Amino acid sequence: MVQPQPESQADPQADPRRTSESPFPEDFLWGAATASHQVEGGNDGNDWWAWEQQPGRIRDGSVSGDGVGWWSGKAEEDLALAASLGQNAHRFSLEWSRIEPEPGVFDPKAIDRYREMLAAAREHGLTTCVTLNHFTLPRWVAKRGSWLGSGMGDLFSRYVAHTVAELDDGVDLWVTLNEPNVLAYTAYAGHLWPPGARSLRACFKAMRQMLKAHARGYHRARELTSKPVGLVLNMPLFEGHRPDHPHDRIACGFQDWAFNGLLVEALRDGRLRFPLQLIPRTLPELAGACDFVGLNYYGRFEVQFDLRAETPLGRHVQQPTTRTEQTDWGQTCPRGLTEQLVRIGERLGKPIYVTENGLFDNSDTQRPEFLVRHVRAVGEALRRGVDVRGYFHWSLTDNFEWAEGWSTHFGLIEVDRKSGERRPRHSAEVYARICRSNGAWCGDSA
Ligand code: GAL
Known about the structure:
Elements: E1 29-33, H1 36-39, H2 47-52, H3 70-84, E2 89-93, H4 96-99, H5 108-123, E3 127-133, H6 139-143, H7 152-167, E4 173-178, H8 180-189, H9 200-224, E5 229-234, E6 237-240, H10 246-269, E7 271-272, E8 281-282, E9 292-296, E10 300-305, E11 314-316, E12 322-323, E13 328-330, H11 334-348, E14 352-356, H12 367-383, E15 388-394, E16 413-415, E17 422-424, H13 426-436
Parallel strand pairs: 1-2, 1-15, 2-3, 3-4, 4-5, 5-9, 6-10, 9-14, 14-15
Antiparallel strand pairs: 7-8, 10-11, 12-13, 16-17
Helix pairs in contact: 3-5, 7-9, 8-9, 11-12, 12-13
The chain binds beta-D-galactopyranose.
The site of beta-D-galactopyranose (GAL) has 12 residues, from loops.
C-alpha cells in the first residue's frame, strides 16, 4: 500500500528531484479539463440555464451567465495560456443544446465555433480530449423527461453521429458521457441538480439509460472515427471508519459497489446488476464498449455504519474533508488515485486517462501540494504496470461550479469576471514545472 508522503517531502518549493527512471512515458498527456456550461457563457438552451433561474437552486445565488467568456472568444486566450504554462493537452466538452437546438435540427454556426476552438488547440500544440455530453441536456430533451425519457439512446446516437462526422478532424480522443454515476445520484436520487427527481428508482433508471446511450453512442462513433472513444467515471475511494468492524465494512463495501463497482463491472461484461437493475440482465453492446477509461478522482470517503444516514447504510465521517454545506468532495488522499487506477487496469485492461483531479481552494494554498502528491500517485500506478496515458487537472480556470455557483474556485488560473483578466495562480506555475519535466519535477516517491 502506498503511504502518503509527509508534508515536508511533498513541498513543491523543494529542489526538483529528477529521476533517471521517470515512470511517465514520453508521450504522456499533461493538461487541464473544462466543460462547456461551466466556461462558455450564454448557454440558454439547456436544462441548467432554466434551473439556475429558480430561486434557491444555486448556493451563492449566482447564475452561469457569461461564463468565463469561452463562447465569445476567450477560449483561444485560455488555450494559448495553457500551452504557455507547459501543458500539451486539453479536455473540454461540447454543448448538445448548441449543436442541436431543436430535435433533428443542427446548427452549423455552433459547429464552426467548436472548429475554431479545436483549431486553436491544435495551433498551440494541445492534444484534444472532447466530451460529447458533460451533464447538460438541451431543454427539448429535458421536456421529454431528461434521462428518464424514452428514446434517449436514439437521440444521443443521432447527436453523436452528426458531431463526430463534423468535428472528428480536430479531436484526438472522444468521450461519450461524463460521470453517469455522479449525475444519477445528484440529479435523480438527489435534488441539487436538474431535474431533481429525489427518487432511487429514477436514479437507477437514469443510470441504465446513460449506459445504454453510451453503448449506442460508442458504437456509432466507432463507425465514423479511428480515434479512441471512451467513457468517464468518477470513482472516489470508500473505506470503513473502523476497518475491522463488520458493519462499517458492509456499509463501505455497499457504497463502493453502488457508486463505483457496478459501473466498472457493467462496462466489463455488459451485466446490469443489483441495484442498477432489480433482476440482473445483460446488455451485450455494453460489454467492453470503450477504448479507454477516463477516471475522475477527487478524494476519499470514510464510511461509518448508520441506517439513518443520507448515504446508504453509513455516514461519511472522514476528517479533514473538502466540503461546503451541501457538497463533499471527500478527504484528499492521493493513495486512492493509485488504487482506483490499479483497479480499473485490472478489471478492464484498457488504457486510462485521469480526466479530472483537483480541489476547490480559493486561496491556492493547498493546490500546489495536492498536484505534486497526485502526480506521484499516478507515477506509482505506472510503476505498478497500469497503462495510464494522461493527467488532466480540474480545472484550467475558475468556472461555474454547478449548484455551488461561482464561489468555489478550482482554477489553476484565476479569472476576474468583470474585467476578463486571467491571473495564473502559483499552482499553475507548479503544474507547469511538472508538465515541462514530464512529471520528474515531483520526484519519484509516490
Ligand atoms: C466533477 C465534474 C466537473 C466539476 C468537478 C468539480 O464531478 O465533472 O464538472 O464540477 O466535479 O466539482
